[in-house]
Structure formats: structure tokens, C-alpha cells
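Record format v2
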Amino acid sequence: MRWNEMTSPEFEVAVKKSEGVCLLPLGVLEKHGDHLPLGIDYMKAWDFADMASKLEPAVVFPPFFVGFVTAAAFEPGAFALKGKLVLEVLEATCTEIARNGFNKIILVNAHGGNVVLLQTFLKMQLESRRDYMIYQCLHHFGPRTIKAKEKLHKETGGTSGHGGAYETAVGLFLYPEMVKMDKILPREIGGENPRLMNILGGDILTPMDWYAKHPVHLSGYGGKSTCEYGKEVCEMIAEDIGETIRKVKSDDLSLALMKEFFDKSGK
Ligand SMILES: [Zn+2]
């Protein structure tokens, strides 16, 4: 049930049918090797949410391509707004989703760089009283997805990080006409450059870690990925998210705890 494709009366019915659950797909615009489209993260997030909502009813918000992607800002095509602004837009978006009758919003994120920002966003929910709950799917979505990715890596010799085996396979299934397999970069380019690690070791973080390791913003290799593997991974992601929707529907506790929390904290 895509929010943007329904009429207003249909939307009212969908809110009830979804039991107040809305999926918010998140991604970014950034380089994904020389072979995948810039928007693959938000595009696939939308598809994952869509496929899951067919297994367990939920309304799917249009994809959020405003993400946290400063690390890719040096590559052409990156849309890298400041993190502070991303958080503000996200907060306003969730408030609007809730105003439309949803009290449970599930963040379906498909961009690795968003993970930490979304954890921060969850913590920020406790800054002021609200009557809706934000849920964040973990980046691996669930056990079925992990298994399907393991199979892909084992059988193709691929690796996944950013623009690697998983994203290539999923791209081949969802957007075959946009994936340029003849442009895929050699395996060694998606490896890790140890230049900064050699100086600082593994126990110190800096803002340059990603750029130091991945000078062309690529991590992993998907030269042997196929549409069939992509189909399997997408179906498992949909099932994992479907399971998440079911669990979220059965959860009455987190909202009650939030009310109790704000009552105690005097906000
Ligand atoms: Zn990606």
C-alpha cells in the first residue's frame, strides 16, 4: 500500500488496515562503484518495504533519499546534506506521518552510513513527549537475509560492503537495465587500503577512516552476482521485514513505557 499511489479515501482505509503501521524507506544518493545507479540505496529500500507490505499489511511512505553520506561527498552525484539537517527533516517527516494516523513507524534503512545517525535519532525521541513509536530494522534485516547473503558470498566468492556482491545481486534483480556489469571494477579496488591503519592501529577512530580505507568509495566485489541470487536475497529481506511488521503490531508495551518515561521525567 504505497502512500503516494492511493486516493485520499483509500488512504483512510489503508491506515486502519495497516493497524497504524507505516514503513519509512531510507537511503541516499551516492556513488556505488562504476556499475550501480546512484539511487540504489533508497530505491531498494522502497522495494524491500513494498515487498514486505504485501506479506503483512502496512502503508509504505515514499523513499527518503535524504541520508547521511558525508563520506561520499568527494564522488560525483552524492547528495550530502549536513547531518543536523537530515535529523531535522526526518523528525518533521515522522511527525507528519504520525499526524496522519500512524502510531508505529518502522525505519527500513538500506544505507550503511545511516545506521549510526538513526540510532542517534532513536535516542532523540526521548527529548520531547510524543504518542508514536519509532522502530529501526537492524541493517541485516533478520536471520533469513543473513543466510541468503552468506549463500551468495560462499557460492560466488563475492564480498559485500558498499557496491559489492549483495548490492549488485539485488540491483540485477530489481533494476536489471541500470546495472552495468561490464563496468564493474576489479576485486582489488574494493579491498581495504591499510594506509591509516598502519599508523593508528585498529583502536582509534578518525573522520578519515572510510576515505583512507576506500579511496574510490567501493568496498566489496560482486562480479559473479546474478539476478537469481538477488531475487533470493530480496525475498528473504521481505520475509524478515514482514516478521518485523507482525512483531511491531503485537507491541503495546513500548508506547506504554514511553508514556511512563515522560510522566516520570516531567516532560
Ligand atoms: Zn549502498
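Strands lie at 21-26, 59-60, 104-109, 133-136, 159-162, 219-221.
Residues 144-234 form one domain.
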